[in-house]
């Protein structure tokens, strides 16, 4: 089973990292869902929540604003000036 390697980072620390099967985030272009095998992407985050569904099916929610989301080779990096677990 393919999986995503995810890292949610704020300006001063790592908020959450781990393996996931899905991510949903709000960008300036609208809400986006990321699954394993997604093509490379760089998007600007809009203020809102990032929902990460772990391999076990748990949902980790973080608020994130003023940053970006990067996807490449099943690695997702979310960098925000302000990010924290909800």
UniProtKB/TrEMBL annotation:
Against Pfam families, the record matches this protein to: ATP-synt_DE_N
Q: Which GO terms describe its cellular component?
A: plasma membrane; proton-transporting ATP synthase complex
Q: Does the keyword Transferase apply?
A: no
> Per UniProt, what is the membrane topology?
Peripheral membrane protein
Which residues does the UniProt record annotate as the domain ATP synthase F1 complex delta/epsilon subunit N-terminal?
A: 4-83
Give one GO term, molecular function aspect: proton-transporting ATP synthase activity, rotational mechanism
Concerning CDD domains, the annotation shows: F1-ATPase_delta
Cellular localization per UniProt? Cell membrane
Keywords from UniProt, A to Z, are: ATP synthesis, CF(1), Ion transport, Membrane, Transport
User: What top-level branch of life does the organism fall under?
Assistant: Bacteria
Report the NCBIfam families cross-referenced here: ATP_synt_epsi (TIGR01216), PRK13442.1 (NF009977)
PANTHER family listed in its UniProt record: ATP SYNTHASE DELTA/EPSILON CHAIN, ATP SYNTHASE EPSILON CHAIN, CHLOROPLASTIC
Subunit-level organization: F-type ATPases have 2 components, CF(1) - the catalytic core - and CF(0) - the membrane proton channel. CF(1) has five subunits: alpha(3), beta(3), gamma(1), delta(1), epsilon(1). CF(0) has three main subunits: a, b and c.
Family the entry assigns: Belongs to the ATPase epsilon chain family.
Record protein name field: ATP synthase F1 complex delta/epsilon subunit N-terminal domain-containing protein
**Organism of origin:** Conyzicola nivalis
